[in-house]
Amino acid sequence: MVDQNMVGTKVHFTWQVERGKIAEFIAATGDSTPIYSDKEAAAAEGYQDPVWPPTFTPVPLKWSGVLYNLFSTLGMPVHKLMHAEQSYQFHREILTGDTLSGVMEVKSITSREGKSGPLEFILFETVFVNQHEEEVLQEEMLVVVRS
Amino acid sequence: MHTMRQTFEQLNVGDEVVRLVKLAITKVQLVRYAGASGDFNPLHTDDSVAQAAGFNGVVAHGMLLLAFMTEAVTSWIPRRWFKQIKTRFKSVSGSGDILTITGVVKEKHIENDSGIVTCEIQIADESNDVKASGTFQAAFPLGKE
After folding, report:
1. Angle separating helix axes A19-29 and B62-74, nearest 10 degrees
2. Which of A56, A92, A105, B120 would be a feasible disulfide site paired with A136, CB 3.0-4.6 Å?
Protein backbone atom coordinates (compact mmCIF):
# COMPACT_ATOMS: atom_id res chain seq x y z
CA MET A 1 0.00 0.00 0.00
CA VAL A 2 1.18 3.50 -0.78
CA ASP A 3 1.36 5.65 2.34
CA GLN A 4 -1.41 8.26 2.40
CA ASN A 5 1.01 10.65 4.11
CA MET A 6 2.88 10.92 0.80
CA VAL A 7 0.11 13.12 -0.62
CA GLY A 8 1.63 16.56 -1.13
CA THR A 9 5.14 15.22 -1.81
CA LYS A 10 6.82 17.46 -4.41
CA VAL A 11 9.89 16.88 -6.52
CA HIS A 12 11.72 19.45 -8.65
CA PHE A 13 13.65 19.03 -11.87
CA THR A 14 15.04 21.02 -14.78
CA TRP A 15 15.18 20.10 -18.45
CA GLN A 16 16.82 21.55 -21.52
CA VAL A 17 14.64 21.09 -24.63
CA GLU A 18 16.91 19.56 -27.26
CA ARG A 19 16.31 19.19 -30.95
CA GLY A 20 17.91 15.72 -31.15
CA LYS A 21 15.67 14.27 -28.46
CA ILE A 22 12.58 15.69 -30.18
CA ALA A 23 13.74 14.16 -33.49
CA GLU A 24 14.07 10.76 -31.82
CA PHE A 25 10.63 11.11 -30.23
CA ILE A 26 8.73 12.04 -33.40
CA ALA A 27 10.52 9.32 -35.34
CA ALA A 28 9.08 6.87 -32.78
CA THR A 29 5.54 8.26 -32.81
CA GLY A 30 5.52 8.77 -36.59
CA ASP A 31 4.27 12.35 -36.24
CA SER A 32 5.42 14.19 -39.35
CA THR A 33 4.08 17.63 -38.32
CA PRO A 34 6.96 19.77 -39.69
CA ILE A 35 7.07 22.44 -36.93
CA TYR A 36 8.54 19.91 -34.45
CA SER A 37 11.72 19.42 -36.45
CA ASP A 38 12.03 22.02 -39.19
CA LYS A 39 13.14 25.52 -38.28
CA GLU A 40 11.76 27.04 -41.49
CA ALA A 41 8.38 25.37 -41.09
CA ALA A 42 8.27 26.62 -37.50
CA ALA A 43 9.25 30.13 -38.65
CA ALA A 44 6.45 30.07 -41.24
CA GLU A 45 3.99 29.64 -38.35
CA GLY A 46 5.64 32.42 -36.34
CA TYR A 47 7.93 30.41 -34.07
CA GLN A 48 11.58 31.28 -33.53
CA ASP A 49 12.56 27.63 -33.15
CA PRO A 50 11.01 24.19 -33.62
CA VAL A 51 8.15 23.41 -31.25
CA TRP A 52 7.73 20.82 -28.47
CA PRO A 53 5.40 17.95 -29.50
CA PRO A 54 2.25 17.94 -27.32
CA THR A 55 2.94 14.65 -25.52
CA PHE A 56 6.69 15.11 -24.99
CA THR A 57 6.52 15.21 -21.15
CA PRO A 58 7.50 11.54 -20.58
CA VAL A 59 10.93 12.41 -21.97
CA PRO A 60 11.92 14.88 -19.23
CA LEU A 61 10.00 13.03 -16.51
CA LYS A 62 11.62 9.67 -17.28
CA TRP A 63 15.08 10.62 -18.56
CA SER A 64 15.66 13.08 -15.69
CA GLY A 65 14.96 10.19 -13.33
CA VAL A 66 12.42 12.20 -11.37
CA LEU A 67 9.42 9.96 -12.10
CA TYR A 68 11.06 6.63 -11.33
CA ASN A 69 12.67 8.07 -8.20
CA LEU A 70 9.23 9.18 -7.05
CA PHE A 71 7.68 5.78 -7.85
CA SER A 72 10.47 4.23 -5.79
CA THR A 73 9.96 6.67 -2.90
CA LEU A 74 6.24 5.86 -2.91
CA GLY A 75 6.92 2.11 -3.07
CA MET A 76 5.21 1.68 -6.44
CA PRO A 77 6.62 -1.38 -8.26
CA VAL A 78 7.00 -0.47 -11.95
CA HIS A 79 5.90 -3.91 -13.22
CA LYS A 80 2.52 -3.52 -11.46
CA LEU A 81 1.71 -0.06 -12.84
CA MET A 82 -0.82 0.82 -15.52
CA HIS A 83 -1.41 4.28 -16.93
CA ALA A 84 -5.10 5.04 -16.35
CA GLU A 85 -5.60 8.67 -17.37
CA GLN A 86 -3.60 11.58 -18.76
CA SER A 87 -4.44 15.21 -19.32
CA TYR A 88 -2.62 18.27 -20.61
CA GLN A 89 -3.27 21.97 -20.46
CA PHE A 90 -1.15 23.88 -22.93
CA HIS A 91 -0.66 27.43 -21.67
CA ARG A 92 2.20 28.60 -23.86
CA GLU A 93 4.40 27.16 -26.54
CA ILE A 94 7.63 25.43 -25.60
CA LEU A 95 10.48 25.79 -28.11
CA THR A 96 13.71 23.94 -28.78
CA GLY A 97 16.40 25.57 -26.67
CA ASP A 98 14.08 26.45 -23.77
CA THR A 99 15.12 25.50 -20.27
CA LEU A 100 12.19 24.20 -18.28
CA SER A 101 11.84 23.74 -14.58
CA GLY A 102 9.15 21.49 -13.28
CA VAL A 103 7.45 20.53 -10.08
CA MET A 104 5.78 17.14 -9.84
CA GLU A 105 3.38 16.66 -6.94
CA VAL A 106 1.49 13.68 -5.55
CA LYS A 107 -2.08 15.05 -5.54
CA SER A 108 -4.09 12.10 -4.27
CA ILE A 109 -3.88 8.43 -3.33
CA THR A 110 -7.11 6.43 -3.40
CA SER A 111 -7.95 2.76 -3.45
CA ARG A 112 -10.83 0.58 -4.48
CA GLU A 113 -11.60 -3.08 -4.95
CA GLY A 114 -10.93 -4.35 -8.48
CA LYS A 115 -11.96 -7.62 -10.15
CA SER A 116 -8.70 -9.28 -9.15
CA GLY A 117 -7.93 -7.53 -5.88
CA PRO A 118 -7.42 -4.04 -4.54
CA LEU A 119 -6.31 -1.25 -6.87
CA GLU A 120 -4.57 1.94 -5.83
CA PHE A 121 -4.83 5.12 -7.87
CA ILE A 122 -2.06 7.70 -7.58
CA LEU A 123 -2.63 11.11 -9.17
CA PHE A 124 0.45 13.15 -10.12
CA GLU A 125 0.33 16.77 -11.25
CA THR A 126 3.28 18.40 -12.96
CA VAL A 127 3.66 22.08 -13.76
CA PHE A 128 6.33 23.21 -16.22
CA VAL A 129 7.74 26.75 -16.16
CA ASN A 130 10.10 28.18 -18.79
CA GLN A 131 13.23 30.31 -18.40
CA HIS A 132 11.04 33.45 -18.47
CA GLU A 133 9.14 32.23 -15.39
CA GLU A 134 6.04 31.62 -17.50
CA GLU A 135 3.87 28.60 -16.78
CA VAL A 136 3.85 26.71 -20.08
CA LEU A 137 2.24 23.37 -19.43
CA GLN A 138 0.34 21.42 -16.82
CA GLU A 139 -0.19 17.69 -16.86
CA GLU A 140 -2.10 15.23 -14.73
CA MET A 141 -1.23 11.57 -14.76
CA LEU A 142 -3.29 8.92 -13.02
CA VAL A 143 -1.44 5.65 -12.41
CA VAL A 144 -2.95 2.42 -11.11
CA VAL A 145 -1.03 -0.03 -8.96
CA ARG A 146 -2.40 -3.55 -9.46
CA SER A 147 -2.19 -5.89 -6.50
CA MET B 1 -3.03 17.54 -49.06
CA HIS B 2 -5.12 19.63 -46.72
CA THR B 3 -8.86 19.52 -46.66
CA MET B 4 -10.49 22.88 -46.03
CA ARG B 5 -10.93 23.51 -42.31
CA GLN B 6 -14.27 24.95 -41.27
CA THR B 7 -14.40 28.27 -39.48
CA PHE B 8 -15.70 28.46 -35.92
CA GLU B 9 -19.04 29.72 -37.25
CA GLN B 10 -19.36 26.82 -39.68
CA LEU B 11 -18.74 24.10 -37.08
CA ASN B 12 -21.75 22.20 -35.78
CA VAL B 13 -22.14 19.91 -32.81
CA GLY B 14 -21.84 16.36 -34.13
CA ASP B 15 -19.41 17.21 -36.95
CA GLU B 16 -16.57 14.74 -37.33
CA VAL B 17 -13.56 17.05 -37.57
CA VAL B 18 -10.69 14.70 -36.77
CA ARG B 19 -9.88 11.44 -38.54
CA LEU B 20 -6.46 9.88 -38.81
CA VAL B 21 -5.51 6.28 -39.54
CA LYS B 22 -2.04 5.39 -38.29
CA LEU B 23 0.25 2.77 -39.78
CA ALA B 24 0.18 -0.59 -37.99
CA ILE B 25 2.11 -0.53 -34.71
CA THR B 26 5.35 -2.50 -34.94
CA LYS B 27 7.57 -4.01 -32.26
CA VAL B 28 10.44 -1.87 -33.54
CA GLN B 29 8.27 1.21 -33.03
CA LEU B 30 7.69 0.23 -29.38
CA VAL B 31 11.45 -0.20 -28.90
CA ARG B 32 12.02 3.22 -30.48
CA TYR B 33 9.36 4.81 -28.28
CA ALA B 34 10.86 3.14 -25.20
CA GLY B 35 14.25 4.65 -26.04
CA ALA B 36 12.87 8.06 -26.95
CA SER B 37 10.67 8.38 -23.87
CA GLY B 38 12.89 6.58 -21.38
CA ASP B 39 10.13 4.08 -20.49
CA PHE B 40 11.93 0.73 -20.38
CA ASN B 41 9.16 -1.30 -18.74
CA PRO B 42 9.74 -4.67 -20.52
CA LEU B 43 5.96 -5.09 -20.87
CA HIS B 44 6.37 -2.87 -23.95
CA THR B 45 9.36 -4.60 -25.54
CA ASP B 46 9.62 -8.21 -24.36
CA ASP B 47 6.91 -10.67 -25.45
CA SER B 48 7.74 -13.17 -22.70
CA VAL B 49 7.26 -10.54 -19.97
CA ALA B 50 3.98 -9.38 -21.53
CA GLN B 51 2.73 -12.98 -21.86
CA ALA B 52 3.64 -13.73 -18.23
CA ALA B 53 1.47 -10.71 -17.32
CA GLY B 54 -1.47 -12.20 -19.24
CA PHE B 55 -1.23 -10.34 -22.56
CA ASN B 56 -0.84 -11.88 -26.03
CA GLY B 57 2.39 -10.03 -26.62
CA VAL B 58 4.07 -6.66 -26.08
CA VAL B 59 1.73 -3.84 -25.10
CA ALA B 60 1.99 -0.36 -26.63
CA HIS B 61 2.78 2.50 -24.24
CA GLY B 62 -0.40 4.42 -23.39
CA MET B 63 1.47 7.64 -24.10
CA LEU B 64 2.24 6.43 -27.63
CA LEU B 65 -1.51 6.18 -28.26
CA LEU B 66 -1.95 9.67 -26.82
CA ALA B 67 0.79 10.91 -29.19
CA PHE B 68 -1.27 9.47 -32.07
CA MET B 69 -4.35 11.29 -30.75
CA THR B 70 -2.60 14.65 -30.52
CA GLU B 71 -1.15 14.18 -34.01
CA ALA B 72 -4.71 13.70 -35.25
CA VAL B 73 -5.77 16.93 -33.51
CA THR B 74 -2.92 18.97 -34.99
CA SER B 75 -3.65 17.59 -38.44
CA TRP B 76 -6.98 19.46 -38.07
CA ILE B 77 -5.95 22.66 -36.26
CA PRO B 78 -2.64 24.51 -35.83
CA ARG B 79 -0.65 23.51 -32.75
CA ARG B 80 -1.18 26.87 -31.05
CA TRP B 81 -4.97 26.55 -31.12
CA PHE B 82 -4.74 23.26 -29.20
CA LYS B 83 -5.42 24.10 -25.53
CA GLN B 84 -6.12 20.91 -23.64
CA ILE B 85 -6.75 17.18 -23.84
CA LYS B 86 -7.96 14.67 -21.26
CA THR B 87 -7.99 10.99 -21.92
CA ARG B 88 -8.64 7.68 -20.22
CA PHE B 89 -6.87 4.50 -21.29
CA LYS B 90 -9.40 1.68 -21.67
CA SER B 91 -7.77 -1.31 -23.25
CA VAL B 92 -4.34 -2.33 -24.44
CA SER B 93 -2.96 -2.22 -27.94
CA GLY B 94 -0.08 -4.14 -29.45
CA SER B 95 2.04 -4.91 -32.46
CA GLY B 96 0.04 -5.15 -35.71
CA ASP B 97 -2.85 -2.98 -34.52
CA ILE B 98 -4.03 -0.39 -37.06
CA LEU B 99 -5.49 2.42 -35.00
CA THR B 100 -7.92 5.12 -36.11
CA ILE B 101 -8.42 8.37 -34.25
CA THR B 102 -11.72 10.20 -34.59
CA GLY B 103 -12.92 13.47 -33.10
CA VAL B 104 -16.43 14.89 -33.04
CA VAL B 105 -17.57 18.36 -31.99
CA LYS B 106 -19.40 18.20 -28.67
CA GLU B 107 -19.84 21.88 -27.74
CA LYS B 108 -18.77 25.35 -28.88
CA HIS B 109 -18.91 28.78 -27.31
CA ILE B 110 -17.19 32.16 -27.39
CA GLU B 111 -14.91 33.12 -24.52
CA ASN B 112 -12.36 35.97 -24.32
CA ASP B 113 -12.67 36.68 -28.07
CA SER B 114 -11.87 33.08 -28.98
CA GLY B 115 -14.10 30.35 -30.36
CA ILE B 116 -13.75 27.51 -27.89
CA VAL B 117 -14.55 24.12 -29.40
CA THR B 118 -14.76 21.00 -27.25
CA CYS B 119 -14.57 17.67 -29.05
CA GLU B 120 -14.85 14.06 -28.04
CA ILE B 121 -11.89 12.02 -29.22
CA GLN B 122 -11.18 8.30 -29.33
CA ILE B 123 -8.65 5.85 -30.69
CA ALA B 124 -9.84 2.40 -31.75
CA ASP B 125 -8.60 -0.64 -33.63
CA GLU B 126 -10.07 -2.26 -36.73
CA SER B 127 -12.61 -4.21 -34.65
CA ASN B 128 -13.69 -0.87 -33.13
CA ASP B 129 -12.26 -1.79 -29.74
CA VAL B 130 -11.72 1.63 -28.13
CA LYS B 131 -8.21 1.88 -26.66
CA ALA B 132 -8.54 5.39 -25.20
CA SER B 133 -11.10 8.15 -25.23
CA GLY B 134 -11.65 11.60 -23.84
CA THR B 135 -12.09 15.21 -24.84
CA PHE B 136 -9.94 17.99 -26.20
CA GLN B 137 -10.37 21.74 -26.51
CA ALA B 138 -9.37 24.08 -29.32
CA ALA B 139 -9.41 27.89 -29.33
CA PHE B 140 -10.25 29.33 -32.77
CA PRO B 141 -9.28 32.95 -33.36
CA LEU B 142 -12.46 34.71 -34.43
CA GLY B 143 -12.94 36.59 -37.67
CA LYS B 144 -9.50 35.92 -39.19
CA GLU B 145 -8.82 32.56 -40.75
Report:
1. 90
2. A92
